């Protein structure tokens, strides 16, 4: 998909979705599914460069139970034609040189499994994958924003948060997971799993939005000083919270120079800058897919 720095993430997402929909609703695609028993795994990867702005593209692994080498030329032509037509509906275009890259696998189960794992990792943001010519994944942008406080990076991350909301970044065709013995776990089930920690308190969304850039400092306060230190940290900022029996919202303004903060200030002042950057990176490092 041709793009430039002036295209917003939302524009590119709409065009990408239209192109994929135009392809999967085509007669050719439906024939491959019915006559050739085709399945697929599709991932959406997003990157950004200062020169060209946001870039979205799709990785699609097409799976056939038998050799379909004879179908590849027709498949390639159909995919590109439908893809380009779908982009055109949103005012975008594709090039024959870069618009589609079809590669035929040898059918090795282990190789395909590694590809799917790699696909899942890259669509999750590729936190450790540095691209060429200054290309960064969303989570690299987030890490850089945390490390440097660069306002441009903060704005880019916020654009990604808003522009990618609700986007399915890794999709399996209907029934493929069951046939492969893959069990899907919902986000709610993951959240309910016991991670071995102890619940110290609950923050309402409006409080979390105000402190998430420095949430690690609240974690440190809680670990070192327990609930009293956490109370003092939140009270000093006039933020609402709840601790077990405490169900009332508190907004008491305290002097940040009070005793509960003395140890925290001393600890942060003595911390090596590189250690602080690594602590921030490790705290915000993604553990699951986007």
The Cα radius of gyration reads 24 Å
Major beta-sheet overview = 3 strands, antiparallel
Side-by-side strand order of the widest sheet: 2-1-3
Instruction: Output the structural class.
Output: mainly alpha
Helix fraction, binned, reads 40-55%
Q: In terms of per-residue confidence, which ranges show pLDDT below 50 for 5 or more consecutive residues?
A: 244-264, 283-290
Mean pLDDT: 75
Broad shape = elongated
Order of helices and strands: HHEEHHHHEHHHHHH
Q: How much beta, percentage-wise?
A: 5-15%
Q: Count the helices. How many? A: 12
Tally the beta strands.
3
Q: What number of domains?
A: 2
Distance between the termini: 22 Å
What does this structure look like?
The protein is mainly alpha-helical. The protein folds into two domains: 9-184, no CATH class; 205-284, no CATH class. The protein contains twelve helices and three strands. Strands 2-1-3 form a three-stranded antiparallel beta sheet, sandwiched between helices. Helix 1 (9-24) crosses helix 3 (72-88), helix 5 runs antiparallel to helix 6 and helix 5 (138-148) packs antiparallel against helix 12. Mean pLDDT is 75; it is low at 244-264 and 283-290.
């Amino acid at each position: 998909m041709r793009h430039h720095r002036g295209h917003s993430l939302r524009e590119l997402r709409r065009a990408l979705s239209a192109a994929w929909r135009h392809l999967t609703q085509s007669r050719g695609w439906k024939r491959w599914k019915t006559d050739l028993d085709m399945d697929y795994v599709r991932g959406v990867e997003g990157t950004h460069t200062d020169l060209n702005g946001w870039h979205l593209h799709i990785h699609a692994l097409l799976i056939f139970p038998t050799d379909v080498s004879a179908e590849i030329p027709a498949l390639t032509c159909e995919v590109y034609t439908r893809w380009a037509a779908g982009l055109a509906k949103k005012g975008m275009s594709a090039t024959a040189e870069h618009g589609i890259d079809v590669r035929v696998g040898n059918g090795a189960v282990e190789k395909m499994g590694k590809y799917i794992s790699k696909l899942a990792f890259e669509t999750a943001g590729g936190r450790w994958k540095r691209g060429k010519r200054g290309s960064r994944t969303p989570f690299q942008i987030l890490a850089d924003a945390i490390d440097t406080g660069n306002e441009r990076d903060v704005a880019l991350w916020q654009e990604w948060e808003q522009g990618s909301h609700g986007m399915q970044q890794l999709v399996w065709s209907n029934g493929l997971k069951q046939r492969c013995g893959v069990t899907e776990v919902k986000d709610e089930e993951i959240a309910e799993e016991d991670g071995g920690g102890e619940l110290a308190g609950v923050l309402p969304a409006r409080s979390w939005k105000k402190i998430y850039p420095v949430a690690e400092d609240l974690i440190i306060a809680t670990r070192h000083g327990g609930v009293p230190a956490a109370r003092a940290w939140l009270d000093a900022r006039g933020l609402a919270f709840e601790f077990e029996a405490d169900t009332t919202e508190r907004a008491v303004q305290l002097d940040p120079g009070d005793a509960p903060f003395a140890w925290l200030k001393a600890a942060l002042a003595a911390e090596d800058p590189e250690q602080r950057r690594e602590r921030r990176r490790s705290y915000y490092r993604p553990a699951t897919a986007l």
